[in-house]
Write the structure tokens for this entry.
Amino acid sequence: MKVSKRLWMVAAGVLVIFGMAVCASAAELKRIDRTNWETLKGLLPESALKWVKTGEMVVKYGSLEYDPNQVLPAWVIESKKENIGKYKLTAKKAIVEAGTGKTPKFIKGIPFPDVKITDPEAGEKIMWNTLYMRDANGPLKTKIDFKFMGRKTGYERSIFVDWYSKPFDGYQDAENWPNKDNFESVNQVLVTSPFDMAGTAQMTWRYRVEKEDMLNGYVPAIRRVRRLTPAGRSDAMFGSDFARDDGGYGIYDGAISSFKWKVIGEGEVLGGFIGSKPLGVNKNKDGEWEFDLRNKELVKWSFGNKGGSAAPWFVDSAVWTKRPVWIIEGTPKDPYYNYGKQIMYIDKELNIGHWKVIYDRTGKYWKTAWTNWGMAQDSQKTVNWNAVLIFILVDERSQHATSVDSSPKYINGARIDTNQFSLAGFATLCK
């Protein structure tokens, strides 16, 4: 059948107008609450969907005004092509070169960009990618507000913490850094306030070879550094609802080899982002890249926001959008680990975690954790960084929550002397 030129032009015009309408509506955010919660069926873990249904959580749902895949560090984007088939795992789940079986001298970006769901080691590889996404964002220096909140009591108190981390993989500049101990990454967390807790700290050394993490703690009362057991990573951190292992870009910050991992599904889930556009990032006086977080409307907590979520522990200003995910089940190998299985929702494209559901050792539901991400770009759109700006964990049994709020200050590409992560440097930092 022939179509006249005039009719074709009219049809084309309609398509263009329709396309513009779709683009315009894509940027609009829809309020989802107890009156229309069914909209989110299949897009949230059951625990979170229940919160929307009961009015505890109100969601701003829609599309971002940018493609987050284009706001990743350049070396991460490059690694998605360069690292295909380049690495494999040992029996103890350490990363080695596929061709030689040797520990690589350096890994750029993410190590496993081509994970297949049929791969029996897919779970481990996906979780390794999340650890390397944090590494790829370079040395981090942040000021964190640990907010303690109760369902009935609302906001209770804060503990203020400084976080320092330095990778020796993932980040392109790390390739030339001295690394005689063969670290994959090192990090420190130091309490600065309140006064009675100031100086309390933890430090982790993570290795690139088949070796357990080394965890050290500093207790101001005895003014000494002491070694902590790996099992202690499931203990409450600074009296909060978080365990030490609940951190990280994959909502898991322990050793990959400490868990049994398997992919139990794939699909879509709502992922939370701070701002519908990329955040700004600027170089500070030390040459570090600091997020521009001066706009206090970016992070609005429900405990101070009338007409929003009924529970106090949500960021009502977050933008929630559909993201493709792997659904991963992790089970601890250590019989003394406090948690049982954990279900993670890991972004297939961004290699970051959006949700985690935690069960106890008997298999009963216990906690839910989630993230709100900051995707940042400089004014020239040539430098990209990613950050977990907000991290929230709710203990359903106690009806209590803790948030890790990094919006006070977040710095990527930080300048941190490696000596700070020695035992002597750690002790000096804490005094």
About this structure: The chain has one domain: 39-430. The longest helix spans residues 5-26. The longest strand covers residues 259-273.
